Amino acid sequence: MGGYLTHDPAIEKWVRMRESTAKHFAWNGRNARSVGILGLVIPGALLYLALATDGQYKWAAKGPSPKAAPVEEDA
User: Which residues contact 25 (CB under 8 A, 6 or more apart)?
Assistant: First the structure.
């Protein structure tokens, strides 16, 4: 079952880069676009949707009707 392990220099370089991404990070168009979309556009669209539909639905009316209190009869 055992075997030998070969080390690929390209994989080793990739692992070292992956372990220290903060050292190798640089802003470029792709990073800025990702941050803009994930950090600004999507939350902004959700906020707009939430504000546009605020108060439009009456969720309290959608639930089950409350049970009526039992009527006490005098005997």
Answer: 31
The pTM assigned to this predicted structure is 0.50
Helix (H, G, I), strand (E, B) or coil at 22: helix
Q: What is the 3-state secondary structure (H, E, C) of 27-49?
A: CCHHHHHHHHHHHHHHHHHHHHH
pLDDT score at 63: 67
Query: What's at 17, amino acid-wise?
Result: M
What is the residue type of 72?
Answer: E
- Section 18-37 average pLDDT: 90
Using CA atoms, how far residue 1 sits from 4, 5, 8, 70, in Å, is 10, 13, 22, 75
CB distance 28 to 35 below 8 Å: no
